[in-house]
């Protein structure tokens, strides 16, 4: 929220019920525990309306657990929203490297290096032909874009760099043209 509030032309709003989806131009699905988030989406009758909005073109950025929610396939369990042509592996980096940071230069996002914070992160095992791979770690995809969908396995909101938020705001702005 702090990153979004600092961006010009962005008015952040929390989405709590399906009606909130009608007044937004883009949505960030945050990190957390994907099974819990999916259960909450169902409990609050948000899962189906959200899927319909995404299929109709609502730009969505999923970070970490949010990425898992977007995936068409999840290793070993049923998908949730199933809207992005990726297969993910949860908690993929294993116990020893449960959480880690990396400095990376990702030219599509920023002309400066940005910090990537991974917390029990998933990785993308495979991505369909329409998915643009933005970054990999140890040969595994950790950031990708498919049209109006952006997915990052890490947490840009935990850094002091707004580059990813700015990039998503640009994606939303493009969808409004
Ligand atoms: N490990 C979590 C999951 O599988 C994701 C972690 C996160 O969002 N930081 O849902």
What's this, in brief?
This protein has helices at residues 2-5, 34-43, 47-55, 65-70, 163-176; strands at 27-29, 60-63, 71-74, 84-89, 99-104, 114-119, 123-127, 132-137, 140-146, 149-152. It has 177 residues and is of the alpha/beta class.
Helix amount, in percent?
A: 10-25%
The largest sheet has its strands arranged as 1-2-10-9-8
Q: Report the bound ligands by name, code or SMILES.
A: glutamine
Count of runs of 4 or more consecutive helical residues: 5
Structural class: alpha/beta
What is CATH's topology name? Rossmann fold
Largest sheet: 5 strands, mixed
Q: From N to C, what is the helix and strand string?
A: HEHHEHEEEEEEEEH
CA-CA gap between termini: 24 Å
Q: Which stretches are low in confidence, meaning pLDDT under 50 for 5 or more residues running? A: none
- The share of residues in extended strands comes to 25-35%
Question: Mind telling me which CATH architecture this is?
Answer: 3-Layer(aba) Sandwich
Integer tally of domains: 1
Mean pLDDT: 94
CATH class, anyone?
Alpha Beta
Name of the CATH superfamily: Class I glutamine amidotransferase (GATase) domain
């Amino acid at each position: 929220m702090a990153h979004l509030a600092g961006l010009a032309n962005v008015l952040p709003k929390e989405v709590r019920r399906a009606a909130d989806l009608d007044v937004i131009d883009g949505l960030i699905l945050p990190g957390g525990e994907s099974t819990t988030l999916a259960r909450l989406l169902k409990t609050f009758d948000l899962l189906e309306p959200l899927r319909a909005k995404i299929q109709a073109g609502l730009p969505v950025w999923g970070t970490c657990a949010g990425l898992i929610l977007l995936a068409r396939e999840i290793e070993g369990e049923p998908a949730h929203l199933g809207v992005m042509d990726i297969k993910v592996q949860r908690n993929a980096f294993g116990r020893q490297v449960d959480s880690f940071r990396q400095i990376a230069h990702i030219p599509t996002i920023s002309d400066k290096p940005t910090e990537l914070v991974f917390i029990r992160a998933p990785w993308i095992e495979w991505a369909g032909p329409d998915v643009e791979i933005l970054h990999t770690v140890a040969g595994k995809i950790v950031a990708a874009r498919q049209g109006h969908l952006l997915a990052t396995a890490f947490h840009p909101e935990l850094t002091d760099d707004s580059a990813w938020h700015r990039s998503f705001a640009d994606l939303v702005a493009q969808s409004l043209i």
